[in-house]
Amino acid sequence: MKTNHWIELSKRFYRLLLYLYPKAYRATYEMEMLHVFSDQCRDTYKQRGPLGILLLWPRILIDVIVTVTTEHLTDPHAKFGLLEVIPNAPLPWKGVLLVLIPGLIFFVSQVEQVTSNKDWFFFAYYRAAYFLILPVLLVWVFTRRFPVWGLIPFGLLYGTLRNYNPSFLISKFSPLNYPNGLYLFGITFDLVYLIPVLICVVLLCGLIWYNACQQQISRAAWGWLVVCGLLIVFQIIAVAYNSTQGEYALGTSDLKQYIAYMSLWYLYDSLPFLLLVFIGKLFAPKYEGLSFLILLGYLLPTVIFGRYGIWNEAIPFYLVTLAVLVYRFVVALVAPIWLVRAASVPRRQRAAAIPVAIAIISQISLNVLVYLAWAVQSGYQLSLLDFTFPLWNQFIIAAGLGLAVTLYLPTAKNPEQTATALPTSTAITE
Amino acid sequence: MPRTSFSLVPGQPLTPAVYHILLALVDGDKHGYAIMKDVEDQTAGRIKLGPGTLYGTIKRLLSSGLIIEVDERPDPELDDERRRYYHLSALGHQFAVQENQRLTQAVKAAHKRQLSDNPLN
User: Could you tell me the residue range of the domain that residue A193 belongs to?
Assistant: First the structure.
């Protein structure tokens, strides 16, 4: 075969570039690729001489960069990338770190928050959610598949957007800002809450209807959904009842206004979470119990108590610290590890339910402590009903988690359902 | 670089690289470089696959059963035995036919609307 130093040099360099591909891929295709490249060089040289070889290289380099990235992302043995979930098998340890990165960032920032006066953690809280989703989106665009380690950043971003963005965005959009709400039945509804609540209601109803049509909602799931609905209704009734016992007289427009405002506020607190539970269901055919990671991402930034606040004068600071750290530790680190390492359906059920139950208990105790401390400090006469408010959202979250367990996981009696539902990943990507 | 992502749902569009590789194998088994040259010929040089794109796509086509690797060589004396040959499977043929129908339909629709590359026509 006629050859020259241009071709030989190119082949030698291309052989080096092939080391960038994953090992398994290289073992199968290295010789073939080298062969093809060699043929390509020979033909190009024959047609256009050394200039042809020089012009060939930019194209080859782009090809190498794109395909090396894709092969690493989609390699089942890769340390990074999609980390395809195998039915009824734990996620490999090498992938666990990727799943834990958002939790680690939040946990470390929380430790910093409660142990020092530095405020860099604010940056982590408010910015991490936006930045952590970027690699996930990159992988998604490249591979057309959503990676399992993207579930926590997805929930985190959703939670952060729910917390801070609607009021910010809506208040910036002047047509919605004027005339400062929607006036209906003698009540002004705050658009900052009304719009997101209506969007949630429409999307939630749509997803429930879709899943019901697909017969994806079991009897237990319907039960949990009813419990969630009842808790939300009781929460609003309790708000209404409590307001009639206080400063507002029955039948006054002020009372109506207060009830409307608080109802929207509480609906805005709970409906996005239920919506996220059903969004997680969209991931369940591929990730089944691991879809629960979305909810853990959502729960990550829910408690921001620290050194600051009136309660610090009434309750020992170490109690707050302890409760916050337990909560963060469980939600950010223990629960994800337990989930992604659990191999069977019953284990994943336990992994989904127990750590979050512990986290909720620690959050409830913290809320009660803080509420009590505030009451003691301010001299407020507490009634039993008062206690329901700090706890109610936790009950709704707990019921939502129950709903998620029944929605995402196949029943333990029928675990083979998982195997058929899981990666028939049809998207083939390069 | 041609986009090569595709979904294995019958009737769904294939990416250009996948379609042209399947098309290259319709008239007989070929090795990698022959496929590459064929794709270039089919597209009048508009799609030039690099070795990475070619074998990445071949890997996925093999794993999804659209093509298969064959041991037989068309003429072992004329060819390097180290080369691997690929054969279009029945499933791959079905996908190529479906994509062909889709493209034909698109061209018909374009003709119907008198779409031309010359804006004065």
Answer: 93-421
